[in-house]
């Protein structure tokens, strides 16, 4: 069998496997719910709040395009905000169908449209994603600090009193965080010491590639002349994300009492469902968000399932509609425009 055919078969099998996991998680999320109650919640929801949330979602994507332009322009390439925004939305459209494909697609679209080397664009995207990963880590840490009492009760219920006591104060959390950082440092030192013996192993090459990409991404951001503007854009993106998650909380009576900090918790932990390797976060997002609302905030299971279904559907529809319109514009209308980097 030809190597190319093998890779294609493996890709298809991998995609079907993760799609199957997503469908399984979706089934697990809704199997014990009263679907009539879920449908009633969906019909009674105040969708004005969802519309506001989607407006903030689009605004966050525009700011993401501005931030991406900042990185691209620092490498002496010219880009228009409109073209970069269209590329970003086409990327989200691709992610809805195939996990992680969006980063390649948006780079390919912008590379073809503005005549910028693909590898150069992909390097800037890695820099973006690394910083977003750091931001998400900080957000999760802050959520743990803000929600110590709630998380303590949750841990006590599922993991016993010992786990609850350990995570019941800031000092314990700081010790745990520092221990984690120290473990990473020790791991890196051991890997460097044994580099000669393990450098041929596939897992080592993957780890090394990730770490090198991580460092390159950090260096790219540190070399920016407008690094404070980059940080400001990052803050605005995640602020809009937080508002985007909190506003739908107000559309259901059962969730309307939740606070903005509770919304941050849904954003921080729910993001893990979006980045899971399942198409469009289907199943994984529903499972995690429903668990957060039901287990952490004592929201009824039916209402929690309704919230997860509505918010995921709203975001998916936004990505499909705006992404498709962006693809149409780039492919048919903007095709006649002359690239800025010719």
Please give a structural write-up.
By secondary structure, the protein is mostly helical. It has one domain. The protein is built from 15 helices and no strands. Helix 3 crosses helix 15 and helix 4 runs antiparallel to helix 5. The two termini are 42 Å apart. About 3% of the residues have low confidence.
Layout of strands and helices, then pairs:
Layout: H1 3-30, H2 35-44, H3 47-73, H4 81-97, H5 101-114, H6 118-146, H7 148-159, H8 161-166, H9 170-193, H10 195-198, H11 202-222, H12 227-246, H13 260-275, H14 284-296, H15 301-333
Helix pairs in contact: 1-14, 2-15, 3-4, 3-6, 3-12, 3-15, 4-5, 4-15, 5-6, 6-11, 6-13, 12-13, 13-14, 14-15
Summarize the structure.
With about 350 residues, this protein is mostly helical. The chain has 15 helices and no strands. The protein is globular.
List keywords for this structure.
globular; single chain; mainly alpha; 342 residues
Tally of domains = 1
Percent strand equals: under 5%
State the order of secondary-structure elements, H for helix, E for strand: HHHHHHHHHHHHHHH
Shape: globular
Total helical segments: 15
Overall structural class, as computed from helix and strand content, comes to mainly alpha
Rg calc? 22 Å
- Estimate percent helicity: over 70%
Mean pLDDT: 80
For the largest beta-sheet, the strand count, sense and barrel status come to: none
> Which quaternary structure do these chains form?
single chain
Ends distance: 42 Å
Uncertain spans: 158-166
Can you count the beta strands?
0
């Amino acid at each position: 069998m030809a190597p190319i055919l093998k890779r294609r078969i493996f890709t298809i099998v991998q995609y079907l496997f993760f799609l199957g996991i997503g469908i399984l998680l979706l089934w697990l999320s809704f199997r014990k719910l009263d679907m009539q109650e879920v449908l009633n919640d969906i019909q009674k929801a105040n969708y004005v709040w969802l519309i506001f949330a989607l407006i903030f979602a689009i605004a966050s994507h525009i700011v993401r395009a501005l931030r991406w332009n900042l990185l691209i322009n620092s490498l002496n390439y010219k880009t228009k905000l409109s073209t970069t925004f269209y590329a970003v939305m086409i990327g989200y459209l691709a992610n809805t169908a195939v996990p992680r494909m969006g980063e390649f697609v948006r780079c390919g679209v912008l590379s073809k449209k503005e005549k910028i080397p693909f590898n150069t664009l992909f390097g800037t995207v890695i820099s973006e994603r690394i910083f977003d990963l750091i931001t998400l880590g900080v957000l999760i840490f802050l959520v743990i600090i803000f929600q110590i009492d709630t998380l303590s009760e949750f841990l006590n219920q599922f993991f016993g009193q010992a786990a609850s006591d350990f995570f019941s104060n800031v000092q314990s959390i700081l010790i745990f965080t520092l221990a984690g950082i120290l473990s990473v440092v020790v791991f890196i030192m051991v890997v460097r010491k044994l580099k000669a013996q393990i450098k041929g192993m596939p897992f080592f090459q993957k780890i090394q590639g990730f770490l090198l990409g991580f460092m390159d991404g950090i260096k790219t951001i540190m070399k920016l002349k407008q690094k404070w503007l980059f940080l400001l854009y990052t803050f605005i993106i995640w602020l809009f994300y937080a508002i985007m998650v909190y506003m739908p909380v107000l559309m259901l009576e059962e969730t309307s009492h939740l606070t903005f900090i509770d919304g941050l918790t849904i954003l921080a932990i729910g993001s893990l469902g979006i980045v899971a390797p399942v198409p469009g976060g289907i199943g994984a997002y529903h499972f995690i968000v429903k668990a957060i609302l039901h287990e952490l905030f004592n929201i009824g299971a039916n209402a929690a399932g309704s919230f997860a279904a509505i918010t995921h559907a709203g975001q998916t529809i936004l990505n499909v509609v705006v992404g498709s319109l962006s693809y149409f514009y780039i492919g048919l209308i903007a095709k006649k425009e002359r690239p800025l980097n010719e």
